[in-house]
Amino acid sequence: MPHLRIEYSTNIAGRFDPAAVLVAATDALVASGVFAPADAIKARLMPVEHFRVGSGGDHGFIHAGLALLSGRDSATKQRLTAALVDAIAPLVAPGPQVVQITSEARDMDRDTYSKRLIPGA
Questions:
Q1: In angstroms, rounded to a whole number, what is the distance separating the alpha carbons of residues 39 and 67?
Q2: Is the pLDDT of residue 26 over 90?
Q3: Whole-angstrom Cα distance, residue 14 to residue 36?
Q4: Pairing assessment for the beta strands 59-69 and 3-9 based on DSSP bridges
Q5: Do residues 26 and 43 touch, judged by C-beta distance below 8 A?
Q6: What is the Cα–Cα distance from 98 to 91, expressed in whole angstroms?
Q7: Closest CA to 63 of 90, 43, 84, 49
């Protein structure tokens, strides 16, 4: 269950290790104790080549979008999104651009979400 999609502007690509961001973000979600089993968390990191931040100044961004099955309260969602921002921020090295690190939590309708596990060998 939760799906974590982390997007980042390509103008800051050299300022962080993509694998480290995925590990830190996933570890933050596991540490929250909200998700069981922990390996139900699915995370991916996606560069965004064409983007604009605000008035077009030389800014960059990292955005962690967390899709959750419906039913969690706002306090839990806020705790999760804050944990993601806190986990990612220290991994971004200083550089010429301002970097906005953001996170949001969205509900996936529990009644219409479908999942099937295909066993491994």
A1: 15
A2: yes
A3: 34
A4: antiparallel
A5: yes
A6: 14
A7: 84
Q: Report CA Rg, the chain.
A: 15
pLDDT given for residue 98 in this prediction? 94
Q: Which has the closest alpha carbon to 63: 97, 101, 96?
A: 101
Q: Of 83, 102, 90, nearest to 25 (Cα)?
A: 83
Percent of the chain with pLDDT over 70: 100
Residue 85 parent element (H or E) = helix 74-88
Q: What tens digit of pLDDT does each residue of 93-121 get?
A: 999 999 999 999 999 998 898 988 888 88
Residues 6 or more apart in contact with residue 114 via CB below 8 angstroms: none
